[in-house]
Amino acid sequence: xxxxxxxxxxxVEMKYVEEAVAVNHKICGDGPFTHRCNExxxxxxxxxxxxxxxxxxxxxxxxxxxxxxEEGDEVIMPSYTFVSTADAFVLRGGxxxxxxxxxxxxNMDETKIEAAITEKTKAIAPVHYAGVSCEMDQIMELANxxxxxxxxxxxxxxxxxxxxxxxxxxxxxxxYSFHETKNFSMGEGGALLIREPKDVERAEIIREKGTNRxxxxxxxxxxxxxxxxxSSYLPGDINAAYLLAQLEMADKVFxxxxxxxxxxxxxxxxxxxxGKIELPTVPDHCTHNAHMFYIKAKDIExxxxxxxxxxxxxxxxxxxxxxxxxxxxxIRFGRFHGEDIYTTKESERLARLxxxxxxxxxxxxxxxxxxxxxxx
Length: 376
Fold this sequence. Notes:
The structure is a single chain. With 376 residues, the protein is α/β, with parallel strands linked by helices. The protein has two domains: 13-247, Aspartate Aminotransferase, domain 2 (3-Layer(aba) Sandwich); 250-375, Aspartate Aminotransferase, domain 1 (Alpha-Beta Complex). The chain is 39% helix and 13% strand. The protein is built from 14 helices and 13 strands. It has helices spanning 13-23, 32-45, 56-66, 83-90, 113-116, 136-146, 200-207, 213-217, 237-247, 250-273, 300-312, 328-333, 343-347, 361-375; strands at 49-53, 74-78, 95-99, 121-124, 149-153, 161-162, 165-166, 173-177, 190-194, 286-287, 293-296, 335-336, 350-353. The strands form three sheets. Strands 1-9-8-5-4-2-3-12 form an eight-stranded mixed beta sheet, with helices on both faces. Helix 3 runs parallel beside helix 4. The two termini are 22 Å apart.
């Protein structure tokens, strides 16, 4: 069986984990490896401040707190996304307002946002699907016009760019995921990217249970205390050690995944030319990170048959999100603005093929040949 995903492992991870345990004697949050991960993210992305978190979900919750989301505040987002995008705001009493997606990139349609803005709108949460950027110039223009926060869900977007800018660094806040399904993994984990220096101190306080403990450890105060409402968003330093080993070899992981992605595209392009399937779209002004490779079948029936056919040939393929506006909690907590032209229809066509660091070239050939066999 060719697995859909195998978590990345470079070979140095356990050496760093052992160093955290046996040398540093520091396995709780904000240890040396956490700081090194933060520094790597800041240097690589150019963001003002990066803070490792326990998940991308928690990074988004932290961004919601920093954006002062309160009861009744509306946050515009796509419905075609993971539940965490909405949950982070619902927990604060916020209302997700879903808008339709573009059929080419599967991202939120930037032309649908302005009509969804009301006096209750507080933020926009663009989701960069498959590591391909939303149209951030238009989104930032609207945010500036209506004085809205922009919280980028860049869970899948590390090392991807929009017009030369790293995803997660364009809005007020950016949220990364280091879940085991992502390009770089610490099992469960994430990071919050902060654009404005004025937001850093409060972010550190909220992340550290509402205390000013970070300032104490930097020697800026002689004791720390409870100064704000907060929670614990600190990953253990063991997890950070595991992640750092991968971040330090990020180019190797990136190149490996990109080889697989490009080979998939080349091998399946003849099916696209014949009108049998659609392949991913990457706009010219965007670069992506080969986070996933998907194809679109004609409809949900064809996709179901394709996934079953691949399974019969020992290939694990999956579909992605059920649109949030059609889920019980989405109906309860949010609303869809405008017409659902593409969100449901396109989501029902999409099938994801195996994609992970270390996927062998012969495996990509076999998967592509099996997809071609299905369409024959």
